[in-house]
Specification:
Blueprint lengths: L24 E3 L3 E5 L5 E7 L3 E7 L4 E7 L8 H6 L5 H14 L8 E6 L11 H15 L4 E6 L5 E6 L5 E5 L2 E4 L1
Parallel strand pairs: 1-3, 6-7
Antiparallel strand pairs: 2-5, 3-8, 4-5, 4-6, 8-9, 9-10
Helix pairs in contact: 2-3
Length: about 180
């Protein structure tokens, strides 16, 4: 879903339009948001074992973020057809197609990732690790590399993408780190 520039939002008296705070585009679990509005910020919360991936074209300032729950649909392709963003392998590929449809150039896209943690001692399924491995395989098959990542461990993360600059910030337990 893209957001067109909103020039109709009332601004506080005496304030310039550029100083008004806008609500961020929130990416829910198994969801994706994209925008070509450089004033937008895209955010996803509570990345535990889930994986958040950003794609950004620095020339056109087009960006997107996906929040994937699982690595792949396995034998259940119908689930991926209904919601490709639930899975790393279909969600990231769909996100890239949509960003390119907005005008971004594949060769300019910068990819970053966060999440993939081992939550609640998930040693049986290792969902976080498997999510990141699925991303690595997908990117390798497409000759793409991650520019930065903050994955693994046991902490939840919040991921921000600032479309004006392409900055990607990870916040966890009140501390921020730029990727």
């Amino acid at each position: 879903m893209t957001r067109e520039p909103d020039h109709t939002t009332p601004q506080p008296v005496g304030c310039e339009a550029s100083t008004a705070k806008r609500e961020p585009l929130v990416v829910n679990i198994s969801d994706m948001k994209l925008s070509s509005d450089s004033a937008d910020v895209i955010v996803t919360y509570s990345l535990g074992s889930c994986l958040g991936v950003t794609a950004y074209d620095p020339v056109l300032r087009i960006g997107a973020m996906v929040h994937c729950l699982l690595p792949s649909p396995g034998a259940n392709r119908e689930k991926a057809r209904k919601n490709p963003f639930m899975f790393v392998n279909t969600g990231v590929a769909t996100m890239v197609r949509k960003v390119i449809d907005l005008g971004a150039k594949r060769e300019r896209l910068i990819f970053k990732a966060a999440g993939g943690a081992n939550m609640r001692n998930d040693t049986l399924f290792n969902t976080g690790r498997r999510n990141f491995e699925a991303l690595e395989k997908l990117l390798e098959r497409n000759s793409v590399t991650l520019s930065a990542q903050d994955v693994g461990g046991t902490i939840p993360r919040t991921l921000f993408l600032y479309l004006d600059t392409g900055r990607v910030v990870v916040r966890s337990f009140g501390k921020e780190k730029e990727l």
